[in-house]
Design goal:
2 helices; mainly alpha; single chain
């Protein structure tokens, strides 16, 4: 079976599903150590935005 080229839509869906999982872990860890849900959620928002853009760009570069 040969390799298939990822579509932009598939890359976007992979990006979103991974970021939700990874950010949830990060928010949970920050809450565990600081007991501050506000700090955890602030981290989570920044984390999901910055890393989603970086991951999507990485995925698109690899397809070319």
């Amino acid at each position: 079976m040969g390799m298939t080229i990822d579509s932009k839509k598939r890359s976007l869906l992979k990006t979103l599903s991974w970021r939700i999982l990874a950010t949830s872990i990060g928010v949970g860890l920050i809450y565990f150590y600081t007991e501050s849900i506000e700090f955890g959620l602030t981290f989570g928002l920044a984390d999901i935005i910055i890393k989603s853009v970086a991951y999507y760009a990485h995925e698109r570069i690899w397809t070319h």
